[in-house]
Design goal:
It is built from ten helices and four strands; from the N terminus they run ααβαβααβαβαααα. The chain is of the alpha+beta class and 340 residues long. It folds into two domains: 187 residues, no CATH class; 97 residues, 2-Layer Sandwich (Alpha-Beta Plaits), CATH 3.30.70. A four-stranded antiparallel beta sheet has the order 2-3-1-4. α1 crosses α9, α2 packs across α9 and α9 packs antiparallel against α10.
């Protein structure tokens, strides 16, 4: 009994050590399996990524023709988008010409006109107010009407004091401008309020039509990118049909088979987006100098807008995503047709 009690704790401790070592080995084995799977997954994707690029480079003519067609399609959408952006910039400059002219009564003095102008400036929907005196109005009429001698022959200045009011956001809120004009007409000093609302409404509608056109053109050209990319991948699938059948027979999954084709679509969309950016940028650089010369003739500080950093990233991301989606749809349809 004493012999058993002497050595039993030792055996128990040894068993605990052995169990702890076995648990450590199992844990390291599980962790090793996960890291090995992660490395294998990474290596498979890297191989598919660069092998698809190699195949694309190997088929130079087909790849170049496809990328050129896609880049032209994408550049059309981007060019139209930049056109609308520049037109909106131009309209923001023209907003100052969309003014409300308040013709005051003949008996209103300059002091009363200044008080009325100061009150109008307090309106949050008003940007600026300018007072044009009778003398200033007569001088402008003499200079620009061509009837200077006839005007100087008049014994009395027939022109009233005019307040030129420039509203805020006038190009986006035509209904608010009409309300603002009606409020001005209620002032006792105002004899007549003038605003060419037809011009404002036409410009608003033109901008809206251009924005909708950009969206529709973008959708149509996106579909074109999908179909062209899908057709290119379909031809590649047809050329590698025997290779795919053999891979399926030896147990390859659909994910393994479709992976290189998805990366091929990615590369096609990626290079097409970059090429489209270069096309649009070159076009804008060609137009930059003539447009700025034209704006200088009209004493304007208009400058062409180019694609910004985030817009460029969005362009490349969208074109790459379209390439992947087009490839995925075609690969899924083709794999279903293979009876393997």
């Amino acid at each position: 009994m004493s012999h058993e009690s002497k050595y039993t704790p030792k055996y128990k401790n040894n068993n605990r050590v052995i169990e702890a070592k076995q648990n450590t080995k199992q844990t390291s084995h599980i962790g090793g399996d996960f890291s090995d799977k992660l490395r294998a997954y990474r290596d498979l994707h890297a191989h598919a990524l660069f092998s698809s690029l190699g195949r694309l480079v190997a088929s130079r003519l087909n790849a170049v023709l496809t990328i050129i067609v896609l880049s032209i399609s994408i550049s059309l959408a981007c060019g139209f988008y930049l056109l609308v952006e520049n037109v909106q910039q131009l309209t923001s400059d023209l907003e100052s010409s969309n003014q409300i002219s308040l013709f005051l009564r003949d008996d209103v003095s300059l002091a009363s006109a200044n008080r009325l102008a100061n009150g109008i400036k307090l309106d949050p929907s008003v940007q600026t107010v300018k007072v044009i005196t009778k003398e200033q109005a007569l001088k402008e009429f003499e200079d620009f009407s061509g009837f200077g001698e006839a005007v100087r022959a008049l014994e009395k200045n027939p022109l009233p004091i005019v307040l030129q009011v420039i509203p805020k956001n006038s190009l986006e809120e035509g209904q608010n401008i009409e309300t603002l004009v009606e409020n001005f007409k209620q002032a006792g000093e105002v004899d007549f309020a003038q605003l060419d609302m037809q011009w404002v409404k036409r410009l608003q509608l033109m901008i809206q039509v251009a924005q909708v056109s950009v969206a529709l053109l973008g959708v149509l050209l996106s579909l074109a990118v999908l179909f062209i990319t899908g057709n290119t991948i379909r031809l590649e699938l047809h050329n590698r049909k025997d290779e795919i059948v053999i891979a399926k027979l030896v147990g390859a999954t659909n994910s393994f088979v479709q992976r290189p084709f998805l990366y091929s679509g990615f590369w096609i969309g990626f290079f097409s987006g970059i090429s489209a950016w270069f096309i649009v940028t070159i076009m804008m650089l060609i137009l930059k100098q003539p447009v700025e010369k034209l704006s200088m003739l009209y004493h304007s500080s208009f400058h062409l807008l180019f694609m910004g950093f985030f817009e460029t990233l969005a362009l490349i991301f969208i074109s790459s995503a379209l390439g992947i989606v087009g490839s995925w749809v075609v690969v899924q349809l083709q794999l279903k047709q293979l009876k393997v």
